[in-house]
UniProtKB/TrEMBL annotation:
<dbReference type="InterPro" id="IPR036188">
    <property type="entry name" value="FAD/NAD-bd_sf"/>
</dbReference>
<dbReference type="InterPro" id="IPR037092">
    <property type="entry name" value="FlavoCytC_S_DH_flav-bd_sf"/>
</dbReference>
<keyword id="KW-0274">FAD</keyword>
<dbReference type="Pfam" id="PF09242">
    <property type="entry name" value="FCSD-flav_bind"/>
</dbReference>
<keyword id="KW-0285">Flavoprotein</keyword>
<dbReference type="InterPro" id="IPR023753">
    <property type="entry name" value="FAD/NAD-binding_dom"/>
</dbReference>
<feature type="domain" description="Sulfide dehydrogenase [flavocytochrome c] flavoprotein chain central">
    <location>
        <begin position="201"/>
        <end position="316"/>
    </location>
</feature>
<dbReference type="Pfam" id="PF07992">
    <property type="entry name" value="Pyr_redox_2"/>
</dbReference>
<dbReference type="InterPro" id="IPR052541">
    <property type="entry name" value="SQRD"/>
</dbReference>
<protein>
    <submittedName>
        <fullName>Cytochrome C</fullName>
    </submittedName>
</protein>
<feature type="compositionally biased region" description="Polar residues">
    <location>
        <begin position="1"/>
        <end position="21"/>
    </location>
</feature>
<dbReference type="InterPro" id="IPR016156">
    <property type="entry name" value="FAD/NAD-linked_Rdtase_dimer_sf"/>
</dbReference>
<feature type="region of interest" description="Disordered">
    <location>
        <begin position="1"/>
        <end position="28"/>
    </location>
</feature>
<dbReference type="Pfam" id="PF21706">
    <property type="entry name" value="FCSD_central"/>
</dbReference>
<dbReference type="InterPro" id="IPR049386">
    <property type="entry name" value="FCSD_central"/>
</dbReference>
<feature type="domain" description="FAD/NAD(P)-binding">
    <location>
        <begin position="70"/>
        <end position="188"/>
    </location>
</feature>
<feature type="domain" description="Flavocytochrome c sulphide dehydrogenase flavin-binding">
    <location>
        <begin position="391"/>
        <end position="460"/>
    </location>
</feature>
């Protein structure tokens, strides 16, 4: 948060401040590590040592010379990082290698608060040293090909990683084709989607700061399925929180391909309570479907009418990551069908797909869902390697949304396997009460911060 923000915006409580301080301290260490170890992060180092250089080599050398099995995990986010950790915990004699193209991970959950200026991006940034300390070999590389027959994956520089079992947590890819004028280059320069936390998150933040008071922001929400179903609507609230204190005449227009969305009644009540008529939602049936964008004029061509905005946040259609598509692991809709007990691919049984890319029954595409799937998958893979049946799975998800300083809402789900499909457990989970009092709403904000602190500690330490 900038100095000017702090002068006019109500500060958070000490719980959040202390969490931020701990995150900043961790990030200081990360920056020191990256600064002194830059040579480790070169492509030339990958074949010899991996992401953390000596630390990764030590982890690999500490493994048995003839490991029980080799498991490669691709993707170091909410699903992949936890799968690698829990697989190593389940059986230390399995050689576990996590491959991630970035030296650190930036969390999408809570990244809407970076856009509003409520937190800085360093508080969402983590490295992988905790996993190396647990014996996981962490390699910085971008996997560009999977060979299911020969059981190896190939890195961008040509390095080959052999596996007995492969766990893919590749996330989503963005399909720009349905909206004329949109492309990856446009997203990186002019019309950011910010649906992968990082540079585009900061770009969108800067665009809001530069926008004149009385300007219009257009958020274009994609059709289902997509990563983080409540995300666009929380983002609208966080933008409104910033505007309320800095640009009170601003307007936010949500142009939606859908006619309903996650936690809709809770969001709309919260918007009205805190921001009045600042946020307007246009469903697909009322003209919210967008067909084209002109990046120069920021004009959106809709199915019914055109819209002009000062800032456009267009979230593209989504499907499984290109790596999964190229490996032949997706169906006609672009997602990965799996055995929902073990997450083994229906196309390649020694490849397991978890997280946003997988078809996981009633579970949404969320960070917590991916994390839960990673633990289930790790247990199933360890059991298979040891010649045992997979344990009975249990799956959970909770998704928090922060609408204002003291206003949080959530949806929770508990799931079970029934006839081979992940289904909701009747009577378990549910939404925040519509008529909750102010104290309950404030507590949900605390729960959201506590959830984030706990889940990231589990992933990265």
């Amino acid at each position: 948060m900038s100095t000017s923000d702090r002068a006019t915006t109500k500060p958070r409580n000490t719980t959040i401040s202390s969490a931020s301080a701990r995150s900043k301290a961790a990030d200081t260490s990360r920056r020191r590590f990256l600064g002194t170890g830059a040579a480790v992060l070169t492509t030339a180092t990958l074949g010899a040592g991996g992401w953390l250089g000596a630390a990764s080599r030590a982890a690999a050398q500490a493994a048995p010379s003839a490991p029980k099995a080799r498991v490669v995990v691709v993707g170091g986010g909410y699903g992949g990082a936890i799968a690698a950790k829990y697989l190593k915990l389940a059986d230390p004699d399995i050689r576990v290698t996590l491959i991630e193209r970035s030296p650190y991970y930036v969390s999408c959950p809570l990244s809407n608060e970076v856009i509003s200026g409520e937190r800085d991006i360093d508080s969402l940034t983590f490295d992988y040293r905790g996993l190396t300390r647990r014996g996981v070999a962490v390699m910085q590389d971008e996997i560009v090909a999977v060979d299911p027959e020969a059981h190896y994956v190939r890195g961008a520089g040509g390095a080959r990683y052999n596996y007995d079992k492969l766990i893919l947590a590749p996330g989503v890819s963005f399909d720009y084709d349905p909206i004329d004028g949109m492309s990856e280059a446009v997203a990186e320069s002019t019309i950011p989607h910010a649906w992968k936390a990082g540079a585009q998150t900061l770009l969108l933040r800067r665009q809001l700061q530069a926008m004149p008071d009385g300007g219009v922001v257009a958020i274009v929400a994609p059709p289902n399925p997509f990563r983080c179903p409540p995300g666009p609507y929380e983002r609208a609230a966080q933008m409104a929180l910033y505007f309320k204190h800095h640009k009170p005449k601003a307007k936010i227009l949500i142009l939606d391909a859908k006619d309903a969305f996650s936690k809709q009644a809770l969001f709309q009540a919260g918007w009205q309570e805190h921001y009045g008529d600042m946020i307007e939602w246009v469903p697909g049936a009322a003209g919210g479907i967008i067909e084209a964008v002109d990046p120069k004029t920021r004009t959106l061509t809709g199915l019914v009418e055109d819209f002009q905005a000062d800032v456009v946040n267009l979230i593209p259609h989504q499907r499984a990551a290109k790596l999964a598509v190229d490996a032949g692991l997706t169906d006609a809709a672009g997602w990965c069908p799996v055995d929902q007990q073990t997450f083994a691919s229906e196309q390649a049984p020694d490849i397991h797909v978890i997280g946003d890319a997988a078809i996981a029954g009633a579970m949404p595409k969320s960070g917590y869902a991916a994390n839960s799937q990673g633990k289930v998958c790790a247990a199933a893979v360890a059991a298979a390697i040891n010649g045992e049946p997979p344990p009975a799975p249990s799956y959970v998800n909770t998704c928090y949304s922060i609408l204002a300083h003291d206003h949080g809402i959530s949806v929770a789900g508990v799931y079970e396997l029934k006839d081979g499909n992940i289904v909701s457990v009747p009577g378990a989970g549910g939404l925040s009460p519509v008529d909750a009092d102010a104290r309950t709403r404030a507590m949900e904000v605390e729960y959201a911060i506590g959830w984030f602190r706990n889940i990231t500690a589990d992933m990265f330490t």
